[in-house]
């Protein structure tokens, strides 16, 4: 038996919530983790206060909070994933002759952790260590579209959550929901000048063993220099290849609500 039972119980709750496609009621958590109701309630309240769990009061359900995703993003930034991403990005840059990158989600931003530049292409604002608003980037949109809708609501509760660069992109929760719905239907994410005028990007999410998006691969190109469909095919193939290399699986995307 663990010498720190409270810590063990918290980890069991987090593991269970991570396996669910959407937030769940207290009683379901209690039964799945074999906890007394009062113990489950107090554990969840503590995790809510620390940001690891979000309480949807109107729905009487609990789901993973932003802090839990930040921990997951921290794992995604470790060297094994960076090394694997760099290998597949090098291949896709050689194939498409366009620049490519791999990002992870941190709160409402994407963090660029791998960047592969194509020779002879214009310089970009993206680089390793740069953060940009997730809702404005193709890579961020690919990740957000693969998250449970309840988690997106936590990240973007109101209009104040939406940063702006050049006057484009979604500016409210309803506009973001519509954009992510289009992304799901299309099967990949796009961005057209919202980050840098004159440049567009296409992106696809990379998934872990549970189907959770751990990051995204994107290709950036100048409007007049590329045929888009070959780049879409390339970015989707690259995301699938990286998903397979980390032992991940792609699950069906939940509908936007």
UniProtKB/TrEMBL annotation:
Transmembrane segments: none annotated. Keywords: DNA-binding, Transcription, Transcription regulation. Pfam families: HTH_IclR, IclR_C. Residues 67-248 form the IclR-ED domain. PROSITE patterns: HTH_ICLR, ICLR_ED. Residues 4-66 form the HTH iclR-type domain. The keyword DNA-binding applies. It comes from the Bacteria. This is IclR family transcriptional regulator. It comes from Nocardioides aestuarii.
